[in-house]
Design goal:
Length: 283
């Protein structure tokens, strides 16, 4: 077996490692061309307000249909995009496309629909991240208050000045801020107090077993109670059954997202769902 040396190079030839490296390199090569070849698209998954049972937001989820590799899941290519820096141009495209779509939906009569966009750490940490966002709002005409930025805990964990400044810049513009995959990262929760967060998204690994595993049920209930006492809203991810839904309703969770309502779908199908299940809370 090959061992990594202090220099970071591999000492022995390892066919297995070589294969993985080759596959990764091939994927990287194709991912580099994905944007210009227009192989990337966004799917949208509705977020449902539990009180009304209607859609109040959409989460934009990236899809890659590679001419060479077929469809590749985000679990495979997002981390690669992050490691190679490709997430910067790709993420910029995602933001622009999602904001443009939100604006179009608003103009089509789905007023006040929120658009949630996943943002990687390196994207968030770009010195000109805010400038780029402003540019997107200017170009698309989207009111910033309808954008929700989804960040993972790893970004807010280090309570740095830079992060606080960027989050404050988001807040000033009315942009919403959600913590994605909540509960999976760290147990240190002080960042919830330190940063201007709007919403936390309970990870679907808890939701999956809430009706069968009393620990997951207890954790979920505790997260909702804590969130509410901090005046944060809660979205539960990965709701697949009516039993899970009822449990979450009982906890006082405000919003849900999951296959029970709808999978993420391309624009047309998402819009169809929207036209059947949209509500404008402000009307
Ligand atoms: P996420 O942001 O936590 O998104 C939720 C994931 O759960 C999505 O997977 C969605 O399809 C899936 N999901 C939703 N409801 C259910 C359900 O009821 N059951 C099950 N089993 N799964 C459900 P997806 O689309 O494969 O995305 C995976 C992850 O990739 C995302 O997790 C997010 O972290 C990342 N990602 C996706 N699009 C983007 C993007 O544009 N930019 C960045 N930086 N990351 C992205
Ligand atoms: Mg997300
Ligand atoms: Mg998540
Ligand atoms: Mg995630």
């Amino acid at each position: 077996k090959s061992k990594e040396q202090g220099t970071g190079s591999y000492r022995f030839y390892d066919p297995e490692m070589n294969l993985v490296t080759c596959q990764r390199l091939a994927m990287e090569t194709h991912l580099r061309q994905a944007l210009e070849r227009q192989e990337l698209s966004l799917h949208y998954q509705p977020q449902i307000d539990l009180r009304s049972g209607k859609v109040i937001g959409m989460e934009a989820l990236l899809r890659w249909d590679s001419s060479a590799l077929g469809s590749v899941s985000p679990a495979q290519f997002i981390s690669l995009a992050e490691e190679t820096g490709l997430i910067l141009p790709i993420g910029a495209w995602v933001l622009e496309t999602a904001c443009k779509q939100a604006r179009q939906w608003h103009q089509a009569g789905f007023d006040n629909l929120r658009m949630a966009v996943n943002i990687s750490a390196c994207q968030f940490k770009q010195p000109d991240f805010i400038e780029r966002l402003d540019q997107v709002f200017q170009e698309t005409g989207l009111d910033p208050e309808y954008l929700e930025v989804e960040l993972t805990e790893s970004i807010v964990m280090e309570r740095s000045e830079e992060t606080l400044m960027t989050l404050t810049d988001l807040k000033i513009r009315g942009i919403k801020l959600a913590i994605d995959d909540f509960g999976t990262g760290y147990s240190m929760l002080s960042y919830l107090k330190y940063f201007p967060i709007d919403r936390i998204k309970i990870d679907r690994s808890f939701v999956r077993d809430i009706t069968t595993d009393s620990d997951d049920a207890a954790i979920t209930e505790a997260i909702v109670v804590m969130a509410h006492s901090l005046k944060l809203k809660v979205v539960a991810e990965g709701v697949e059954t009516e039993e899970q839904l009822e449990f979450l309703r009982g906890c006082g969770c405000e919003e849900v997202q999951g296959f029970y309502f709808s999978r993420p779908h391309p624009v047309d199908r998402a819009e169809l769902f929207l036209s059947r299940h949209f509500t404008d809370k402000n009307k």
